[in-house]
Structures are given as structure tokens and as C-alpha cells.
Amino acid sequence: MELEIEKEERENILIIRPKGRVDPLTVENFDSSIKEGIGEGKFRIIIDCSELLYISSAGLGVLIGYIEEVRENRGDIIICCTSPKVHEIFDLLGFTKIYKFFPELKGAVAFFSNG
Amino acid sequence: MAEVLLRIPSSYLLLYPVSELSRKILLLYYFPEKDATLFSLAVEEVLSNIIKHSYKGKENGWIEIGWKVSRSKAQVEFKFGGTSIEIPNEEFDLKEYIRERRKDGLGLEIIKRATDEVNYGREREVNWWRIIKRLKD
User: Fold this and answer.
1) Strand, coil or helix: what is B136?
2) Cβ contacts from A onto B, under 8 A
3) Which residues, numbered 7 to 66 in chain B, qualify as contacts with chain A under a Cβ-Cβ cut-off of 8 Å?
4) Of the candidates B55, B110, B115, the residue with the CA atom closest to the CA atom of residue A59
5) d(Cα B93, Cα B69) in Å, to the nearest integer?
6) What is the extent of the structural domain holding A100?
7) CATH no. for residue B6?
8) Number of domains in chain B
9) Tens digit of pLDDT at every position of chain B (137 positions)
């Protein structure tokens, strides 16, 4: 199974939409999409999980690797639109207590726009 | 009780098919969807660790996977060659991981949290890793 990454910019917010599975085979692609955004000075990032089927520990490691950097630059990585299965994975390691989660993209965008 | 035995090469391409097979075996034995899914995550992370650490990502290794599943308990035993795996016994703290930008050990934590029992050993050049999930009444 492959991973396709769709990127969108809205109100100076980078929306990253992984489609498929983030696992050891595809994690580089996911990592690059965030790294490139940060490299271009985009620190307000939404991971739209509406088409994410699975995220392994390797993918969770990517999110861990960048969160401090974006927060140091007055941004954040927030996560939206998780399926019950994907939400379970985030919840298992406590991500839902430390990262901000929104059920819909609209709410995630509003969080940045109002902040 | 069902017993299923599978031998696969150490390829990341097989992570998804094997974890999905595991999920479906547990569902056949009336495990709730949530338990079956969490256990399949553990199966995928065990395989991923074996391929990454024991076989250094190479596809020429072998892994034997044996399921023993009843209506109250699911057990999967993995046997494999390659080098042994170090399993640290430290407390997981996500905040500390974020502070230190650590990425290692997340898979092991998923395995621990998604199962009820995890055992690992090595005998005569063969490693074994066993995970168990019990259904609560």
C-alpha cells in the first residue's frame, strides 16, 4: 500500500493530507512533507487524517520530532479528522493529551485563524 | 482453539497483510473489533522491529509467526534469526520524548500497551517474541 501526500495552504496554514498508510515504507515521504513546510517557514500545520488509514510508530516519531520546533516558532502541529482506528493509535501513546485534535478541518483552521 | 502458522521473508511489504490477517483471525474468534485492531497494531510493530533491528532492513531473513487463538485468549509467537533485540525496561513518558525529540522505542510501547503480556528470548541462535491478549469477562 502506498502513501500519497496532498498539501494545501489556507490563511497561512499548511494543511498536510496523507492518503494511505504511514509505515516504515512510506514514512520518509510523510517526514519530507512536514520538513519542507518548516523549511519554508510554515509553522502552523494541520495534519488532516481524513484519508489516513494507518500510522505506525515511525509516523508518530515524525510528529514528535517537529512539534517543539514549530511551537518554538509560535506555531503548532494539530491533527484533525481521524478515523476511530487512527484515533486509537494516537490515544494509545497519549498523543491526544498533548497534541490538539479536532474532529473536522473547519475547527482546526478556526483554531489557528482565531489564535 | 485455532492454530495458524506462517513463514514469511523479512519484508516491510508484508506488514499490512500479516497484521490484517491477525485482525481477521481474532474477529473469527469473537474478539471485539477494538481488541482485534489493537492486537493487530502490536503484531505489525513486532514485525517492524524484527525487520529493522534483527535483519537491519534486509529482506533475506525469515520470520515464523504462530497464532494460537481461542475465545478468551490470543497468542502470537514470532521466531526469527538475525541479531537479538534489546528491549529496554524504562518508563515511557511522551513529554520527555518530545523534549528530547526521541523516536526510538515508540513501537515497543505500542506493543506493551496493546497487549497483556510480552515476552522475548533467544535460544540457539533463534529469537522468539511472544505477545498475548486476554479477553476480560
Assistant:
1) coil
2) 72
3) 12-13, 15-16, 34, 37-38, 41, 44-45, 48, 51-52
4) B110
5) 32
6) 3-114
7) 3.30.565.10
8) 1
9) 889 999 999 999 999 999 999 999 999 999 999 999 999 999 999 999 999 999 999 999 999 999 999 999 999 999 999 999 988 888 899 999 999 989 888 999 999 999 999 999 999 999 999 999 999 76
